[in-house]
From TrEMBL:
Gene name of the record: Arb
Top-level taxon of origin: Eukaryota
Organism: Thalassarche chlororhynchos
Protein's recorded name: OXDC decarboxylase
Upper classification of the organism: Eukaryota, Metazoa, Chordata, Craniata, Vertebrata
Listed GO CC annotations: Golgi apparatus; plasma membrane
Ranges in coiled-coil conformation: none
Annotated ranges, domain Cupin type-1: 107-240
PANTHER family: CUPIN TYPE-1 DOMAIN-CONTAINING PROTEIN (PTHR35349:SF4), DYNACTIN-ASSOCIATED PROTEIN (PTHR35349)
């Protein structure tokens, strides 16, 4: 079972091998592929009623006798493959992140991770992937991303999401296993676990650059106390009561 993300907001357009084959005139296919029997052999192929990209033939064991793949050299493999489950964990108060992403200067990445990271950054339309685990009844604090849309899929657990709109309105909704969530770039949002089981999601971000994120505690503490005092009509000293998060 695979969970797939595609970098398009249009209707996904896909051309399978069999569709391309049957869309090619018989004589052209015969001249291109040069099979034994020529065009007569090409004519023995019959287009199936069902899409073979989705529906495997019921007699697959009879058709395929040997399916093997030769492992590519490592320096090629790591451009396309990343062991996310085995990668470094990045804890935060309330949970854990794991990333398959681009990092500027390869900061904190091992050699194979650097190859994957650089490969992501070479492509204009690509994805950063992550897993997010929020511990039982804990919170992923309000934040937004400057340079990416975010989409997520719930693997396990249950939670509540809040989307804070520019109008000051907050939309809240519950999420559970199999649900998909989407946050457009610049949309402040938060996620919290609301049941005994940890909430676990796979997240995709529409950027091949280093993800730029601003969290509520960062921009709150980044605002001078005297500015906060004017905004909230509270004494400047009151804002010393908000503890700064440890780096």
């Amino acid at each position: 079972v695979f969970l797939l993300f595609f970098t398009t907001h249009e209707e996904l357009q896909t051309l399978d091998v069999d569709d391309a084959f049957f869309s090619t005139p018989e004589d052209i296919a015969a001249r291109a592929l040069k099979p034994q029997g020529g065009v007569n052999f090409i004519r023995t192929f019959k287009k199936q009623v069902e899409d073979q990209a989705i529906n495997l033939p019921p007699n697959l064991d009879e058709l395929v006798q040997n399916a093997t793949y030769v492992q590519s050299p490592d320096n090629l493999v790591w451009q396309y493959f990343y062991n996310l489950k085995g990668s470094a964990e990045y804890p935060f108060p309330g949970g854990i992140f794991q990333w398959a992403r681009y990092r500027r200067n390869g900061t904190g990445l091992n050699e194979t991770e650097k190859i994957f990271s650089e490969s992501l950054n070479k492509h204009e339309n690509t994805l950063t992937l992550a897993t997010l685990r929020i511990f039982s009844n804990r919170l992923g604090q309000p934040h937004f991303h400057f340079n990416a849309n975010e989409m997520g899929y719930v693997i396990s657990g249950c939670g509540q999401v809040g989307v804070i709109l520019s109008s000051g309105v907050t939309a809240n909704f519950n999420i559970g296993i199999g649900d998909v969530i989407f946050f457009p770039v610049g949309t402040q949002h938060y996620i919290q676990s609301v049941c005994e089981e940890d909430l676990f999601l796979i997240l995709a971000y529409s950027t091949g650059n280093q993800l730029e994120t601003l969290r509520m505690n960062d921009y709150f503490h980044g605002t001078a106390d005297h500015i906060l005092a004017q905004l909230f009509f509270k004494e400047q000293a009151e804002f010393k009561k908000f503890p700064k998060a440890a780096k």
